[in-house]
Amino acid sequence: MYPLDFWPKNNQHFTNNSVKHAWAFLDALQITYDTKGITWLELLILYQARGGPSDLSYKNDSPLTARSTLKQLLNNFKALIKLVTKYFMHQEDQYMIKPARTQCYRLRDAAIQTHMSRIACQVVVTPNERQTILHAILQQKGRFTQAMQSSLLEQTLVLPSSKLSLRQLPKWKLPPPSLPSALRLPRDPDKQNDDRGRSKQNDNTFKAAQIFFC
Predict the structure, then answer these.
(1) Which among 39, 63, 90, 131 is least surrounded, fewest beta carbons within 10 Å?
(2) pLDDT computed for residue 11 by the predictor
(3) pTM (two decimals)
(4) End-to-end CA distance of the chain
(5) Rounded to whole angstroms, how far apart are CA atoms 188 and 195?
(6) CB 114 within 8 Å of CB 163
(7) CA nearest 31: which of 86, 98, 108?
(8) What pLDDT, on the 0 to 100 scale, is given for residue 62?
(9) ω into 127 cis (within 30 of 0)
(10) Per residue, what are the HEC states of the chain?
(11) Which of 1, 27, 34, 21 minimizes the C-alpha distance to 209?
């Protein structure tokens, strides 16, 4: 990632705080190319699990509250990530936001048969983060009881296949982020500088992909 040394111009007018969190999230990601990819839903949950704010509203809009649908939240998250990627991610790494080309029901192991948009990369996560993402998806799918959670941990949970409606409100409740997973926010840029000839800094080390479900 290039340093966050200016505030990018954007049609959506995201707040500076949203841009800072998105930059910190992308800067900390360890990714590798993968044809099956990862869904935007998984990436959104990971973003929030690492401390990203749930309010992804625009400057001049009414704040996105719990009344926002999952579709609205995903659309705003996509726009924010694409904005920060465009201005601050190295050109050779920008493949991560390109659509995955292969057909795959990535969330099938969570008993979800809905086609979810995916991007062509895989993200390295900790075991706790992988479990948090799965719990959040199952909470969004429907009622997720303590008994179901115990069965999940014992790998004996069986769920009927169903569709996931994006018209629902976000239902998941995430635990507070823990170090070292919590986002480390950069300082506010002192002045705008759109020099794209800067050398690389803070490159992430690419590691083997850690698959969530597929």
Answers:
(1) 63
(2) 61
(3) 0.78
(4) 28
(5) 17
(6) yes
(7) 98
(8) 53
(9) no
(10) CCCCCCCCCCCCCECHHHHHHHHHHHHHCCEEEEEEEEEHHHHHHHHHHCCCCCCCCECCCCCCCCCCCHHHHHHHHHHHHHHHHHHHCCHHHHHHHCECCCCCCCCHHHCECCCCCEEEEEECCCHHHHHHHHHHHHHHHCCCCHHHHHHHHCCCCCCCCECCCCCCCCCCCCCCCCCCCCCCCCCCCCCCCCCCCCCCCCCCCCCCCCCCCC
(11) 34
Structure tokens, 151: 């069965």
Radius of gyration for the alpha carbons in the chain, expressed in angstroms and rounded: 17
Q: What is the pLDDT of residue 197?
A: 42
> Which residue from 185, 197, 182, 180 is spatially nearest to 2, judged by alpha carbons?
197
Between 72 and 105, the more confident residue is 72
The answer to whether 133 and 45 are in contact (CB under 8 A) is yes
Q: What is the pLDDT of residue 198?
A: 43
Tell me: pLDDT of 187 over 80. yes
Where do the structural domains in the chain lie, given as residue ranges?
16-153
Do 50 and 177 meet the contact criterion of CB atoms below 8 Å apart?
yes
